[in-house]
């Protein structure tokens, strides 16, 4: 692996290899009082975030530190970006300072691909390579989120192949949904998108999944369900009548939880909007695996850094 920009770049063998590495790292650190491995000692990892984040940024920072990398956080609000510096200049400045890996979140779809192209062009001149990890670009993709979701589903279900996974809610604005559809289908799952027509993107019929508008009809046949955050900050116009009506039609409440097979895991990429897309009682139930996702996120991101920076076989 040179960069991790899109789930589309991962075949089943590569994705499974990343999940297996994450699982081994989790087992290695289990029960350790000091969770520190020397794997990336001497490497420098930079998180470059143009959007706010808690889970992704912090878990990448922890992942780097647990593998002994020097981890540096850059926020657009506190950098030269606020003075007008371009994305190209910022990314190349960071690599010129010695960054081995840049983990980037940006509101523009395709931004990570553009930065990776600049880094590859610069590497041809300088001979020094900087890897780029897409930590979410606009409404495009979020590959490490899909990987940690797959790790959680594998832990809970034993296997992903042959399972039916529902993804519910604001698919239109969700980079998480796009990456999960690609990855879960690559790993052999059947994916069902459940959303109102107004929250489905153009071209969704070409995705490797099935589309439904009735949550109640789909729940009994699902092995797991992933609820999506309604991304009001990306909405400019009326996509549904009201928050209450959205919750009635597409929120996962206790009655709907009872329609799922017993013990079916409930996932959510966070942050959760309780009472709208998921009821508090469901979010706090034994079915909810949100914190398991967060824990797996650290190990999955350790695995990604390992494969990119430690020369692990593809």
UniProtKB/TrEMBL annotation:
Residue span(s) of domain Aspartate/ornithine carbamoyltransferase Asp/Orn-binding: 162-308
Residues that bind carbamoyl phosphate: 55-56, 105, 142, 145, 270-271
GO terms of molecular function: amino acid binding; aspartate carbamoyltransferase activity
Catalytic activity: carbamoyl phosphate + L-aspartate = N-carbamoyl-L-aspartate + phosphate + H(+)
UniProt keyword NAD, yes or no: no
The enzyme's E.C. designation: 2.1.3.2
Aspartate/ornithine carbamoyltransferase carbamoyl-P binding domain: residues covered: 2-154
Pathway listed: Pyrimidine metabolism; UMP biosynthesis via de novo pathway; (S)-dihydroorotate from bicarbonate: step 2/3
GO BP terms in the entry: 'de novo' pyrimidine nucleobase biosynthetic process; 'de novo' UMP biosynthetic process; amino acid metabolic process
PROSITE patterns per the UniProt record, alphabetical: CARBAMOYLTRANSFERASE
Keyword Cytoplasm: no
Alphabetical keyword list: Pyrimidine biosynthesis, Transferase
GO terms for cellular component: cytosol
Pfam families: OTCace (PF00185), OTCace_N (PF02729)
List of residues binding L-aspartate: 83, 175, 229
Enzyme type, top EC level: transferase
Classification via PANTHER family: ASPARTATE CARBAMOYLTRANSFERASE, ORNITHINE CARBAMOYLTRANSFERASE, MITOCHONDRIAL
UniProt subunit comment: Heterododecamer (2C3:3R2) of six catalytic PyrB chains organized as two trimers (C3), and six regulatory PyrI chains organized as three dimers (R2).
UniProt xrefs under HAMAP family: Asp_carb_tr
Function: Catalyzes the condensation of carbamoyl phosphate and aspartate to form carbamoyl aspartate and inorganic phosphate, the committed step in the de novo pyrimidine nucleotide biosynthesis pathway.
UniProt similarity note: Belongs to the aspartate/ornithine carbamoyltransferase superfamily. ATCase family.
Protein name: Aspartate carbamoyltransferase
């Amino acid at each position: 692996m040179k960069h991790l920009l899109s789930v589309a770049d991962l075949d089943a063998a590569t994705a499974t290899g990343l999940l297996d590495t994450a699982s081994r790292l989790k087992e290695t650190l289990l029960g350790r009082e000091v969770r520190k491995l020397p794997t990336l000692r001497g490497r420098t990892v930079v998180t470059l975030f143009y959007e706010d984040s808690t889970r992704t940024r912090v878990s990448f920072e922890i992942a780097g530190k647990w593998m002994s990398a020097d981890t540096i956080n850059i926020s657009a609000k506190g950098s030269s970006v606020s003075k007008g510096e371009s994305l190209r200049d910022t990314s190349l400045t960071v690599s010129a300072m010695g960054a081995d890996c840049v983990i980037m979140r940006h509101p523009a779809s395709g931004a990570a691909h553009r930065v990776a192209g600049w880094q590859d062009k610069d590497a041809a001149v300088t001979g020094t390579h900087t890897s780029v990890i897409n930590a979410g670009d606009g409404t495009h993709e979020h590959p490490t989120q899909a990987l940690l979701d797959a790790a959680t589903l594998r832990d809970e279900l034993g296997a992903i192949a042959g399972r039916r996974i529902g993804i519910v809610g604001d698919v239109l604005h969700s980079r998480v949904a796009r990456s999960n559809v690609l990855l879960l289908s690559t790993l052999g799952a059947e994916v069902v998108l459940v959303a109102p027509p107004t929250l489905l993107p153009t071209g969704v019929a070409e995705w490797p999944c099935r589309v439904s508008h009735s949550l109640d009809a789909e729940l009994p046949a699902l092995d797991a369900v992933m609820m999506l955050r309604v991304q009001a900050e990306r909405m400019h116009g009326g996509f549904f009548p009201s928050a209450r009506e959205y919750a009635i039609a597409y929120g996962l409440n206790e009655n709907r939880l009872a329609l799922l097979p017993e013990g079916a895991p409930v996932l959510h990429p966070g942050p959760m909007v309780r009472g709208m897309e998921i009821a508090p009682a469901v979010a706090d139930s034994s079915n909810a695996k949100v914190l398991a996702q967060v824990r797996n996120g650290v190990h999955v991101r350790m695995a990604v850094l390992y494969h990119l920076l430690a020369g692990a076989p593809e």
